[in-house]
Amino acid sequence: MRSGTFKQSYAELVALSDNPVKWAWCALALAAALALPALANSYVLGLATTIAVTAIAVLGLNLLTGVAGQLSLGHAGFLALGAYTQAILGTDHGWPALPALAAAGMVAALSSLAVGIPSLRLKGLYLALTTLGFSVIVSYLLVMFEGITRGPSGMPVPPLMPLVSGLDHGRSVYLLALLLLVAFVLATLNLMRSKIGRAWAALHEHDIAASAMGINLTAYKLLAFVVSAFYAGVAGGLLALQTRYVNVDTFGVLLSVEALAMVIVGGIGRVTGALLGTAFLVGLPELIRLGFGGTGSWFDTLFANHAHEVKELLYGAVILLFLRLEPEGLAGIWRKAKRFWVLWPLSK
Amino acid sequence: MDFLFNLLVSGLVVGGVYGLIAMGFAVIYRATGMLNFAQGELMMLAAYIAYALATWMPAGPQGPDAGALWLVVPGTLAAAMVAAVLLEALFIRPMAGESMFAKVMVTIALAVMIRAGIVLAWGNEPQLMPRLLGNALIRLGPVALYTPQVVVLLALALTSAATWALFARSRAGLAMRATANDESAALLMGIDVRRVYTLAWALAALYAGLAGLACAFLFSVDPTVYSLGLRSFPATILGGLDSVLGGALGGLVIGVLENLAGGYLGRGMKDIVGFLLIIVVLMVKPYGLFGTRRIERV
User: Fold this and answer.
1) Closest by alpha carbon to A249, among A172, A334, A344, A142?
2) A57, B69, B92, B178: which has the highest count of C-beta atoms within 10 A?
3) Is beta strand B137-140 parallel, antiparallel or unpaired with respect to A245-246?
4) Cα-flanking dihedrals φ and ψ of residue B45, to 5°?
5) C-alpha separations of A191 from A228, A263, B47, B290 in Å
6) pLDDT (average), residues B143-148
């Protein structure tokens, strides 16, 4: 039984992990993820890539909405900008994939200033609606500048050079996404335990009180937007690399809602939550298809003809259920389960 | 000049629909302090119900007749109100005391589910709405209008007047204003806050029902109708989230502006000019033109 989880210094309180066992488990999970390309078929690998890519964007949204408390309904706009930057630089300007990926993050981060600066005086719902407006404007601009983006017909994306020779494209993208995900998780954890993260948390609780405590609201709100958009931009670039094709229709309002659903399902403001929520919501439609499909029932035809609607219903129901029954999300469930076994047989 | 006049008037008509939706947003925001993102979907539901009722009515010898309106209009409005009151009781009320973020996400989830449900029930194809209001052309000087367009403008004018009277003159309106101002104080004064919430949702559904009817008669009944809800956000913001009549005015302004931009600057501009406008307006007036400035205590 683990006991005596007391802290003696401030450094212990903000340490990344209070327990070496945690590091061992993380290393094990990472090793398993690294071994996946050798074991899994392309379907599983594609799913794992999608989870890793989406998780990066959800981590960013979680920082902005979950940690800093600024509701964004426009993250699809940042993803779209990242994906198109990757496509345009790669196809028309011959950039290699990796520098283009960095540029994708940068472009999205810069564009976030366009929505962040007008939003400085706004909060709550006014801000949410402005971000929604931003994503609508972005998709319009992408269609309008047909000379650069090829308009509604979409753009091809050049493949990623193999990271290690002899590796095929799917496996390379998976490994790249995994490495970036690990980097972003570490970055997020470190941001959250630093001065910046504490300022964001204060902003979340009450912005006026935070500014009375000496927190520069302008700087920290903008920083939250820029950082979050950078995550989304990189994720957008990776998405483009994975699908090898970008189209403006992919980045509708539903995508922003999906990302928010992942944040909620995982647990608002938690890194483990962002990862669990993404894996859960990406995997859920596939699991349901595997579970109910192949029986030739009405469900098969429903899924075949109305996959989009079934997914929408599923996301809606999952959001409703989690908000009502478990507002702390999967991360909360995980924490409670852990506590139960740690204190067993004294737990109740 | 004729082109300009026609753009202006048809802009007013579209703006009337935006205004009706925006009033629905505002009335819920006023009473409960949250934004109902499912307002556009409520309108879409109303449009489909209107279509279902209109096609269910046996057609007269010369096709569907105007007599069906006596069933379609009240039926649609009643169905929309019942749906909204149920949604409020089943999904929104249990969230009382939760954060704004959670409540808003509930309405977003409802919006997504209603949209998917409608597509599953009626399919993806546009439905042909019987032209119950006729299609006569009315000429006013240089401007030509179809009957349904005139009816929508009249409906917006009447609804705005009735709304003003409700909030300014009636007990129920007073109770709603009191609840919006301070929920606990309203409770202490003996106002049944739960009933006020139900009333607000029913009223919002009434606006959504009118907008849905207008949409069914003016445009088409198809799964993209909900995007009108998306496009009336600028109207709501322009008027101020908590100003019901401001929403109506904002709707008209945005409708006209969209049409002018579409007519003179190119079709695509039509879709974003509203959002561009509010980004500018919000920089100057963060609470819209008629919204109440919120003074916070820490």
Assistant:
1) A142
2) A57
3) unpaired
4) -60, -45
5) 12, 18, 48, 40
6) 79
CA distance B281 to A103: 32
Burial class (CB in 10 A: 0-12, 13-18, 19+), A9: exposed
pLDDT at B102: 85
Mean pLDDT is lowest, of A28-42, A115-129, A275-289, B46-60, for: A115-129
**Three-state SS letters, A108-157:** HHHHHHHHHCHHHHCCHHHHHHHHHHHHHHHHHHHHHCHHHHCHHHCEEC
| Structure tokens that stand for A278 in this block | 């993404």
Round to whole Å and give the CA distance between A135 and A138.
Answer: 5
Which chain A residue has the Cα nearest residue B100? A124
CA atoms within 13 A on the CB side of B257: 20
pLDDT digits (tens, 9 = 90+) for A324-333: 888 888 988 9
What pTM does this model have?
0.88
Task: Tell me how far CA of residue B135 lies from CA of A11, A159, A329, B2, B146, in angstroms.
Answer: 76, 55, 54, 21, 6
**Does the pLDDT at position A66 exceed 70?**
yes
User: Are A316 and B116 inside 8 Å of each other by CB?
Assistant: yes
Q: Characterise A296 by phi-psi region: left (phi > 0), alpha (psi -120 to 50), beta (else).
A: left
What residues contact B41, with CB distance under 8 A and at least 6 apart?
A: B110, B111, B114, B115, B118, B226, B229
Residues of A in contact with B298 (CB under 8 A): 206, 208-209, 212
Q: Which residues of B touch A118 (CB under 8 A)?
A: 279, 282-283
Stretch A64-78: mean pLDDT: 90
The ipTM estimated for the assembled molecules is 0.83
CA angle B12, B17, B18 (to 5 degrees): 90
How far is the C-alpha of A156 from the C-alpha of A154, rounded, in Å?
7
Residues of A in contact with B110 (CB under 8 A): 316, 320
Q: Identify any residues that bridge with B63 across adjacent strands, giving them in sequence order.
A: B60
DSSP string spanning B21-48?
Answer: HHHHHHHHHHHHSS--TTHHHHHHHHHH
Q: Do B282 and A118 touch (CB under 8 A)?
A: yes
Structure tokens at A154: 């979409």
Instruction: Tell me how many degrees the CA angle A67-A225-A55 measures, rounded to the nearest 5.
Output: 65
* Tens of pLDDT, residues B53-81: 888 776 655 555 667 778 888 999 999 99
- Of A236, A273, A264, give the one whose Cα is nearest residue A155: A236
Provide CB contacts within 8 A for B69, sequence distance 6+.
B132, B133
